[in-house]
C-alpha cells in the first residue's frame, strides 16, 4: 500500500476521535446504501473535511488544515496520482471544472512525463466537454511538443480544430496520424466529417461571392440605365427604410429593360398621400391617376379629386414647381428636369381650380 494511503488512514482515525469529542462523530450516521449513485455519494462526502473544497478560511479548522497539508505530503508521483484519481472521479460524474482543477494540481507537482501527459490529455477532454476548444489545443500542444505522434493528442487536436472550423489544421493532424496508423477508423470517420464540412463552407463562400458579384452588376447596370435615360438621382443623408421597395429595372441585368419607379402622390391641400410601389417609365401620368383616384377618396369631402378634375405638378432639380401634362410618360416628365430623391418620384396633385393659386403661394414662400 502506498505511503500516502497509510497516512490518510492514520489521519482519518485522528479525525474521528477529534469529531467524537465534540459530539459530532463522523460515524454517527449509517453508511450510504449500495443504491446510492456516485454523484449522491460525492455530495455527502463533501460534507466531510477530507472532501471539502469550499470552507470559511477566516476560521480555525485544524481538521481541514491537516487534510490540506496531507494532500501535498509524500513523493511527487504519489501526490500527482492522488489528484489525478480525484480528477477522474469528477470527470465520471461530469464535474468537468472540478476535474480540471485536480488535473492542474497534479501537473504542478512535476511528477514526471508519463503522468503529466495523462493529466494534460484528461484536462483536454474536460475542456472538450465544456467546448473550450482553444484550451483543448493548448493542452494537446504540450503533449505533442514531447511526442509529435501521440495518437490521442492528435485526435483531440483534430477534433477541436474541426469545431473551430480550422479545417486545414484538423486535416493535418488526421493525416499525420494516418501515415503510421492508416487503419484507424476513428480518424477516418473524423476526416470524412472534416472534408464534408470543408466542402459545405467552400460552397457557401462561393454562393456569397456570387451574390455579392451579382449585386454589384445589378447596381452598375441600373446606374448606366439611369444615366442613358437622363434620370438624375440623389440620396438623403438618412435614407428612408423602404424594405424591398426600390427603383429598379424589370430585368436587373438588362440595361434595355423597363425602369420601375416607386411613386408617391401628394395632396398638399388636404395633407393626404397615395403610394404605388412600381410605376413603369412608359406609363402615363393619366394612367396612374386613373388608378389612385378610381374611387372617391374618403377624405374628399368637396368632390374635388377625380382623374379629370385634378392637375399634376412636380418640383424640378432647380427647385421650381412646374405643371405636368397628364398624357406624358413618366420618363418624359423626369428626364433631365427632376431630381429623384432616394429613388422615389413625388407628384403633387391639386384640383384644377386651385393649382395656379397654390403654385403662386408656394413661390412667394420660397422668396428670401
Q: How are helices and strands ordered from N to C?
A: HHHHHHHHHHEEEEHEEHEEH
Number of strands: 8
Averaged pLDDT: 85
Shape: elongated
Separate helix tally = 13
Helix content: 40-55%
Key words describing this protein structure:
single chain; about 375 residues; alpha/beta; Serine Threonine Protein Phosphatase 5, Tetratricopeptide repeat; Ubiquitin-like (UB roll); 2 domains; six-stranded mixed sheet; two-stranded parallel ribbon; 8 strands; about 55% helix; about 10% strand; elongated; disordered N terminus; TPR repeat; repeat; Csn1/TTC4_wheel
Question: Summary?
Answer:
By secondary structure, the protein is an alpha/beta fold.
Note down, in words, how this protein is organized.
With about 375 residues, this protein is an alpha/beta fold. It folds into 2 domains: about 5-25 and about 35-195, Tetratricopeptide repeat domain (Serine Threonine Protein Phosphatase 5, Tetratricopeptide repeat), CATH 1.25.40; about 250-365, Phosphatidylinositol 3-kinase Catalytic Subunit, Chain A, domain 1 (Ubiquitin-like (UB roll)), CATH 3.10.20. The protein has helices at about 5-20, 40-45, 60-70, 75-90, 95-110, 115-130, 135-145, 150-165, 165-180, 185-230, 285-290, 330-335, 350-365; strands at about 230-235, 250, 260-265, 270-280, 310-315, 320-325, 340, 345-350. The strands form 2 sheets. Strands 2, 3, 4, 5, 6 and 8 form a 6-stranded mixed β-sheet that branches. It has a two-stranded parallel ribbon with strand order 1-7. A hairpin with a 4-residue loop joins β3 and β4 (about 270-280). α6 (about 115-130) runs antiparallel to α7 (about 135-145) and α9 (about 165-180) packs antiparallel against α10 (about 185-230). The longest helix is centred in the middle third of the chain and has 45 residues, at about 185-230.
